[in-house]
Design goal:
This protein is mainly α. The protein is built from 9 helices and no strands. The longest helix is centred in the last third of the chain and has 29 residues.
């Protein structure tokens, strides 16, 4: 069930982004929230199925802390590093890609936190299902950011080509780490 819910969540994310380039229906701008709900439900289902099998030794607490840190980073990156209304609700006028803070680190920092979160959950649950689920959602997320980077964002943000030229795709570099550190805290500034 968790595999289907996760896949449906990513399909909703894809539809939300496609609608930002070629509007389909006005209600499509709610699909991002629905996709987040699907991902949360898939994760809850995975945890519910595997929770009783966790061996609560020294390592389990560390994996819980790691998952919590990556979850907080993911929430910050998606919902607080950017102005919420301008990013997820408003769709009119030319839009600028945010290039500071965590978005100076790489163009898709949320993927790093997302994969880290699910890796920690897979290690915590220590089951084949959890490991496969981690791989499943990570591959979906990578496919999603490739679509965003190659088609959606260049058509959505007027400065995206410049952002692509100056910021790594996924793996931070020493230069991008420094730029992130210098600009962190400039919440949602447009450049």
């Amino acid at each position: 069930m968790e595999f289907v819910l996760a896949a449906l969540g990513f399909v909703l994310f894809f539809c939300y982004d496609v609608d930002s380039v070629r509007p389909v229906r006005p209600w499509f701008h709610h699909l991002f929230a629905a996709g987040c709900g699907m991902q949360a439900a898939a994760t809850a289902f995975l945890l519910w199925k595997g929770w009783s099998g966790i061996e609560w030794g020294g390592g389990a607490a560390g994996w819980c802390v790691g998952a919590g840190v990556f979850l907080l980073l993911l929430i910050y990156t998606l919902f607080f590093a950017l102005p919420f209304e301008a990013t997820y609700v408003e769709k009119s006028g030319p839009r600028m890609a945010y290039t500071e803070g965590v978005y100076a680190l790489c163009r898709h920092p949320g993927v790093l936190w997302f994969i880290g979160l699910y890796f920690c959950l897979a290690m915590l649950l220590a089951t084949n299902t959890a490991a496969l689920f981690c791989l499943w959602v990570s591959l979906w997320d990578l496919a999603y950011i490739f679509l965003q980077d190659l088609w959606i964002f260049p058509q959505t943000f007027v400065n995206y080509r410049e952002y692509q030229a100056g910021t790594p795709f996924l793996l931070p570099t020493p230069k991008s780490i420094g730029r992130c550190a210098r600009t962190l805290g400039r919440k949602g500034k447009e450049t």
